[in-house]
């Protein structure tokens, strides 16, 4: 099994945990400042916090949620590539590209949050994911 591709997988998992800490460090003080007592909340939804808190306090949480979405496909395709023995070389570089772009996207969304540049970063990372998916399909169906 070629494991180079698993390194960016671990880095993105670690980055997701960094964003979780960032989310807590941003949101908990904002909740306190807004007079919201977490111990008294029952059944709240994400939109409730969006309405109660300043936008900038929500941005890290929004990004954390994004890291629970498309990256799940990345994790799956990276494992397929590793299991098919095609996880080194170009595929590893594509995986590092995906992770780097997602990290830049996270920092940008959690700080500046301009949609145009965020969209460009998202599309660029998605193109890496598309290439990885095609390579995984080639390895599985033509390997």
From TrEMBL:
Q: Where in the cell is it found?
A: Membrane
Could you tell me the keywords of this UniProt record?
A: Membrane, Transmembrane, Transmembrane helix
Q: Which residues cross the membrane?
A: 6-25, 73-99, 119-141
Record bears the keyword Transmembrane = yes
In terms of superkingdom, the source organism counts as Bacteria
Query: In the UniProt record, does the keyword Lyase occur?
Result: no
Q: Which InterPro entries match?
A: MAPEG-like_dom_sf (IPR023352), Membr-assoc_MAPEG (IPR001129)
Do you know which Pfam families this protein is assigned to? MAPEG (PF01124)
Protein name (database record): MAPEG family protein
Native organism is: Sphingomonas floccifaciens
